[in-house]
Write a structure and sequence with these properties.
The complex is a heterodimer of chains A (569) and B (403). Chain A is built from 18 helices and 17 strands. Chain A is α/β, with parallel strands linked by helices and 569 residues long. In chain A, helix 2 packs antiparallel against helix 3 and helix 8 crosses helix 14. Chain B has three domains: 215 residues, 3-Layer(aba) Sandwich (Rossmann fold), CATH 3.40.50; 84 residues, Ubiquitin-like (UB roll); 81 residues, NADH-ubiquinone oxidoreductase 51kDa subunit, iron-sulphur binding domain (de novo design (two linked rop proteins), Up-down Bundle), CATH 1.20.1440. Classes of the chains: A alpha/beta (569), B alpha/beta (403). Chains A and B meet through helix 2 of A and helix 11, helix 12 and helix 13 of B.
C-alpha cells in the first residue's frame, strides 16, 4: 500500500502501525509509554501525528497505516501538541530547582531527558506538582519513588505481560492516579519476585534497586575486614555500556583491574562457583535420573524464578534442584574453605557480589542461606562506584582474577545467557555418563533468545528431553503445559529474565532486544576463548573437592551448597 | 412550545403499555427495523451524536454467535438528567428500545448500565425488567416468536468516565474504568470481545417510539440534519427547571429558556451552557440560535447531552470555572497524559485565578494550549471535550480585559 509521510511517498507491504512505518522511513517520533516488548497502550500521546482528513491527531503506536494515507509526523500542529504534553509531563515529574535530575538513579539513562530534546522544549510554563504518594522501601531489592513516576504503565505491563507476575497496578483516578501494589502493601510484601524488569522498563527514576554502595564503600575502607568480591558472568559483557561503549564489548580484565583499584582484597569470579554448581547439579540430575527421583529437574540459579515458583507453583517445588545459586555457593565456599585456607577468621571475611540482578539482593537475605553473601551490587551500581572513584574502566590495563576462586572455564561463562546452564550441564553430564570426551561442545539447539527452546540430546543411546525457558511469562506457560500433561522433560533450565542474566534487572539501561543479542554474542565469545570449557575439568574445582568437599553431593556439599524452598501461596 | 413525542406515553401504567414498538418490530425483518431507524437519522443522544441506525446496521452485519446490546444509563454529565427522567417515568420504553435493538442486530443479551447514584431509577428499572419477564416481553420466545432476549442490570460505581462506551464496557467486565483504544470499535469487538452496540437511554427510547408508528414519524419532525425531538434538561438560574421535549429547529435556545423554563432569574443572562459541561457557552449575543445540531455547531458549540445550564449575570463565573475544573480534574480516568496532567494543571491555575479574582493573559494562553493538546490528542471523547467550557468562559468574558 502507498502512504505519504511528510509529503514523500512510501510503499509498504504490510499493515504496519504508523510508528513502525515511519521508523522504516528513518523518521523518529518521540514515545514514552511505548515499548517494543509490550502491547501498545496509547497513553502518553506523544507519538500523535496528523493524518489528512482527520479532525484529531492519531497516536502512531496504535494507528495502522492504510492505502493513500497522508501522514504528517512533525507538522506545526503536531509539534505544538507534543510540546504542551511534554511540559505537562515534566511538571508532573517532580523535577525541582534543587536539580534533583543530577542525583537521580536514571540521570544517565533518562528517557524524559531524551524526549525533551527531541521535542525541543525551551521552557516549562507550569510549575511542578508533586505527588503525595510515599516512597516504597519495603523490598530488599527494589525502591519505588512515586514522585518521579509519570504513570506510563510500562512497569505494570512488563510485570503482567512479559513476566506474568502481576504485582503492580494502577489505582485511583484523576490526579490521584498512581502505580501501586495490592492494597498498597509495598513490593516487599506482595508476590513480587524482585526480577527488576520493571526497573529496566521504567523511563524515569521512579524505580531503582536498593542501593548498597555506601555499605560497600564503608567495608572496603575498614581494615579489620577482609573484603573479597565476586563478579557474575553477565556483568563483564554489559558494564562497558555504562561507560559509553558499544553493547557487547567484553571488559573482563579491565573489570578485575577496576575492582582492585576500588580496594577489594581479592577479586574472584562467580564463574568459579558456576562450575561448582554444574558439578553438584549435574550429579543431582544423574542421581535422580538413575534412581527414579523427581523429574523433570528444574535449575535453581535464578532467584527471581525461585520466588516465582514458590508463590505460583508450589506443587513443583520438589522438581527444583536443591543446589544454591552460584552467588550463594561462592559465599559459602569463600567463608569456609577459602577463609580457612588463607587463615582469615571466618567472621572477618566479607563477600561482595556484583550481579546483573536485583533478585540477588533478596536471595542474600533468604533465611535458608543467610550469611553466605554480605552485599550485592548490580552492574549499574558498580559502574557508579567506578565513576565515583575516577576509574576509566574502558582504558584500564588488563589483569587476571585471583586464585583459586577466580579460576574458571568456558562452561561457567555461558551461565550469563539463557541456555548456558543447560549447555554447561550437558557438557559435564555427557562425559560423566559416557566416560568419553565430548567432541562438539556447542549445543546450538539450546542457544538463542527465544523464550522457550526444546531439544533432545542423545548421550550414548540415552535420549534426554531438555528445555530452556527464559522470562517468567514463558515459565508460566511451560509449567502449565507440564501440569496439563502436554509436555514431558528430564531437565529444564529456567531464568526469570528475558534473555537470561544478560537481560537481568540490574543491567545497564536500556536493555533492548538488539542489545541483548550483542551481549549474548559476547558471552559465547568468552566461552570460545577458554582452553578449558567443561566445568569438571576446572583444576580449582577439582582441588576443592579433593581438599575439602570430597565429592559432589557429599555431606559437606549438602551442608554448604544445597538449600531448601518454601511454599508461599 | 413543548413538542410531545417521546413523552407521549407519560403517565401510562405498565399494565396499560402496549409495547407496540416491539410488537411492530417483531413482525418485520431485522433489516427493515434497521432501515427504519437509519431513515429516521436518529443520532446518539448521549452527546457524541453518532447515527444509531448505522451502528445497528454494522453490528447486524458482523458475524458472531454472540452479540450484545448495552444501554448506557451512566448519565454523569453535570446538568443532565433526561435519562433519569426516562428511566423513572417511562422505564418500559427504555427496556423496549433495548429489546428492539437486540432483535434488529441479532443479539440475545442486553445490559443496562445505570449510574450508581440513581437509586430510584435502579429500583424502577429492576422492577420493570421483572414485570417484563412476567409478561413474556423478556425471556424465551418473546410474545410467542422465535426471538429470545435477556437483560441484566449493572450498577455503576461512580466514575464519570464510565459513560464513555469503551470504559463502560471495561467496567461491566470488572476491569478498570478506562477507555479502550479504538479501533476496534465496540460494534466489532466490544463486551467480552463480542460485537456490541452501546446506545444511550434516550436513543433507545426514541427508537422504541419510532417503531410504534406504521410510518416514520421522524421524517416529519425537526430539520433535515436534526431529525426528531430532543429531551432537554434545564437547570440553573431559571424559574421552571425540568425536562422538556423540543422539536429540532422549532425553538431557539433563548425561547427554550424563556418559554419552557420560565426565563432567567436575577438581573439577566450571563450565559447558557447548552449541553452539559463539556460544551462551550452561549452568550447573550449567541443564544438566539435555533436548537439544532447544525446551528449550534456553526457557532462553535454542541447539543451535547442536552443538559442545559442557565447562568445569570449575578454569578461569579470564576467560581463556576473552578467547580467545572474540580470535576474534570477528579474524573479523568488518569490514563492519558494530556487529559490527566492537563486537567490537573488547569485546576491549579484556575484555583489561583479564582482566589485572585481575575485571570492573567499568560494563564489563558497556557490553558488554551492545554485545551488544544487535550482536544487533539486525548484518548477518548471525554478527555477531548474536558476543557471546552472553561476556555470558552475565559475567552468570552476575560480574554479581552486582562493583561
Amino acid at each position: 500500500m502507498k502512504v505519504k509521510i511528510n509529503n514523500k511517498e512510501y510503499e509498504f507491504q504490510e499493515e504496519l502501525s504508523i510508528l513502525d512505518a515511519v521508523k522504516k522511513a528513518h523518521i523518529i517520533i518521540p514515545t514514552l509509554c511505548y515499548s517494543e516488548k509490550l502491547k501498545p497502550f496509547g497513553s502518553c500521546r506523544l507519538c500523535s501525528v496528523e493524518i489528512k482528513g482527520e479532525r484529531t491527531l492519531k497516536p502512531a503506536c496504535v494507528t495502522k497505516i492504510s492505502n493513500g494515507m497522508e501522514i504528517y509526523t512533525h507538522s506545526e500542529k503536531v509539534r505544538k501538541v507534543r510540546s504542551t504534553i511534554m511540559e505537562l509531563i515534566i511538571a508532573s515529574h517532580g523535577i525541582s530547582c534543587n536539580l534533583n535530575c543530577l542525583t537521580c538513579s536514571k540521570s544517565a539513562s533518562c528517557e524524559i531527558k531524551v524526549i525533551a530534546e527531541e521535542i525541543g522544549i525551551m521552557e516549562v510554563r507550569v510549575p511542578p506538582i508533586s505527588s503525595r504518594v510515599p516512597e516504597d522501601r519495603s523490598s530488599y531489592s527494589i525502591v519505588r519513588e512515586p514522585q518521579k513516576c509519570i504513570v506510563c504503565d510500562r512497569c505494570v505491563r512488563k510485570c503482567a505481560e512479559v513476566q506474568s507476575v502481576n504485582i503492580l497496578t494502577i489505582a485511583n483516578r484523576g490526579p490521584d492516579t498512581y502505580v501501586t501494589t495490592f492494597l498498597d502493601k509495598g513490593m516487599g510484601n506482595v508476590d513480587c519476585v524482585n526480577c527488576g524488569q520493571c526497573v529496566i522498563e521504567c523511563p524515569t527514576g521512579a524505580l531503582h534497586e536498593v542501593y548498597q554502595t555506601d555499605q560497600v564503600w564503608n567495608v572496603i575502607s575498614d581494615n579489620s575486614k577482609y573484603v573479597i568480591v565476586q563478579t557474575a558472568p553477565a556483568v563483564r559483557v554489559a558494564i562497558a555500556e555504562e561507560f559509553g561503549a558499544e553493547p557487547g564489548r567484553i571488559v573482563t580484565k579491565q573489570l578485575v583491574t577496576g575492582l582492585r583499584l576500588l580496594g577489594f582484597d581479592k577479586v574472584f569470579d562467580t564463574n568459579f562457583s558456576a562450575d561448582l554448581t554444574i558439578m553438584e547439579e549435574a550429579s543431582e540430575f544423574l542421581e535422580r535420573f538413575k534412581n527414579g527421583g523427581k523429574l523433570p529437574l528444574f535449575t535453581s540459579c535464578s532467584p527471581g524464578w525461585i520466588k516465582f515458583i514458590e508463590h505460583n507453583y508450589p506443587e513443583f517445588l520438589d522438581n527444583l534442584s536443591t543446589c544454591k545459586s552460584p552467588q550463594q555457593m561462592f559465599g559459602a565456599i569463600a567463608k569456609t574453605y577459602y577463609a580457612d585456607k588463607i587463615g582469615i577468621p571466618r567472621e572477618d571475611m566479607i563477600v561482595v557480589s556484583i550481579m546483573p540482578c536485583t533478585a540477588k539482593k533478596y536471595e542474600r537475605v533468604r533465611p535458608e542461606m543467610k550469611g553466605d553473601v554480605d552485599y550485592v551490587l548490580t552492574t549499574r551500581e558498580l559502574a557508579k562506584m567506578f565513576k565515583l572513584a575516577g576509574i576509566d574502566l574502558l582504558n584500564l590495563p588488563s589483569e587476571e582474577y585471583d586464585e583459586p576462586l577466580g579460576i574458571t572455564t568456558g562452561a561457567a561463562a555461558i551461565f550469563g545467557a539463557t541456555g548456558g546452564v543447560m549447555e554447561a550441564a550437558l557438557r559435564t553430564a555427557y562425559e560423566v555418563i559416557t566416560g568419553k570426551t565430548l567432541e562438539r561442545l556447542d549445543f546450538e539447539s539450546v542457544r538463542g533468545i527465544e523464550g522457550i527452546k526444546e531439544a533432545v540430546i542423545e548421550i550414548d543411546g540415552l535420549k534426554l528431553n531438555v528445555a530452556v525457558v527464559n522470562g517468567l511469562g514463558n515459565a508460566r506457560k511451560m509449567l502449565d503445559m507440564i501440569k496439563n500433561g502436554e509436555k514431558d522433560y528430564h531437565f529444564i533450565e529456567f531464568m526469570a529474565c528475558p534473555g537470561g542474566c544478560i537481560g537481568g534487572g540490574g543491567q545497564p539501561i536500556p536493555t533492548t532486544k538488539e542489545i541483548l543479542s550483542k551481549r549474548m554474542k559476547a558471552i559465547y565469545e568468552i566461552d570460545k576463548s577458554f582452553e578449558i570449557r567443561k566445568s569438571h575439568e576446572n583444576p580449582a574445582i577439582q582441588a576443592l573437592y579433593k581438599e575439602f568437599l570430597g565429592e559432589p553431593l557429599s555431606e559437606k556439599s549438602h551442608e554448604l551448597l544445597h538449600t531448601t524452598y518454601i511454599a508461599r501461596s | 412550545m413543548e413538542k410531545i413525542f417521546l413523552k407521549s406515553d407519560l403517565g401510562k401504567s405498565f399494565e396499560d403499555y402496549e409495547f407496540s414498538g416491539l410488537k411492530n418490530s417483531l413482525k418485520m425483518e431485522q433489516t427493515q427495523v434497521i432501515d427504519k431507524i437509519k431513515d429516521s437519522v436518529l443520532k446518539g443522544r448521549g452527546g457524541a451524536g453518532f447515527p444509531a441506525g448505522i451502528k445497528w446496521e454494522t453490528a447486524y452485519h458482523v458475524e458472531d454467535d454472540i452479540k450484545f446490546v448495552v444501554c448506557n444509563a451512566d448519565e454523569g454529565e453535570p446538568g443532565t438528567f433526561k435519562d433519569r427522567f426516562l428511566m423513572e417515568n417511562l422505564p418500559y420504553k427504555v427496556i423496549e428500545g433495548i429489546v428492539i435493538c437486540g432483535y434488529a442486530i441479532g443479539s440475545k443479551y442486553g445490559y443496562i448500565y445505570i449510574r450508581g447514584e440513581y437509586t430510584q431509577a435502579i429500583k424502577i428499572i429492576r422492577k420493570t425488567i421483572q414485570k417484563m419477564y412476567e409478561r413474556n416481553i423478556l425471556g424465551n420466545n418473546i410474545l410467542g416468536t422465535d426471538f429470545s432476549f435477556d437483560i441484566k442490570l449493572v450498577r455503576g460505581a461512580g466514575a464519570y468516565v464510565c459513560g464513555d462506551e469503551t470504559s463502560l464496557i471495561n467496567s461491566i467486565e470488572g476491569e478498570r474504568g478506562m477507555s479502550r483504544i479504538k479501533p476496534p470499535l465496540p460494534v466489532f469487538e466490544g463486551l467480552y470481545g463480542k460485537p456490541t452496540v452501546v446506545n444511550n437511554v434516550e436513543t433507545l427510547s426514541a427508537a422504541a417510539e419510532i417503531m410504534k408508528y406504521d410510518y416514520n414519524p421522524y421524517l416529519q419532525l425537526g430539520t433535515e440534519k436534526s431529525k426528531g425531538t430532543k429531551l432537554v434538561s434545564i437547570s440553573g438560574d431559571v424559574y421552571k427547571p425540568g425536562v422538556y421535549e423540543v422539536e429540532f429547529g422549532k425553538m431557539t435556545v433563548k425561547e427554550i429558556v424563556n418559554e419552557l423554563a420560565g426565563g432567567v432569574k436575577g438581573s439577566g443572562l450571563g450565559f447558557v451552557i447548552p449541553g452539559g459541561i463539556s460544551t462551550e457557552v452561549l452568550t447573550e449575543n449567541e443564544w438566539d440560535v435555533p436548537y439544532t445540531y447544525e446551528d449550534l455547531f456553526k457557532i462553535g458549540t454542541n447539543i451535547g447531552s442536552g443538559g442545559m445550564i442557565v447562568v445569570s449575570k449575578d454569578r461569579n463565573y470564576l467560581e463556576i470555572i473552578k467547580n467545572v475544573s474540580d470535576f474534570f480534574r477528579d474524573e479523568t480516568c488518569g490514563t492519558c497524559f494530556p487529559c490527566r496532567e492537563g486537567n490537573k494543571n488547569i485546576n491549579k491555575m484556575v484555583s489561583e485565578i479564582y482566589e485572585r479574582g481575575y485571570p492573567m493573559k499568560k494563564e489563558i494562553e497556557i490553558i488554551s494550549d492545554i485545551k488544544n493538546a487535550v482536544s487533539l490528542a486525548a484518548r477518548c471523547g471525554f478527555g477531548e471535550a474536558s476543557v471546552n467550557l472553561i476556555l470558552s468562559i475565559l475567552e468570552n468574558f476575560y480574554a479581552k480585559k486582562v493583561k
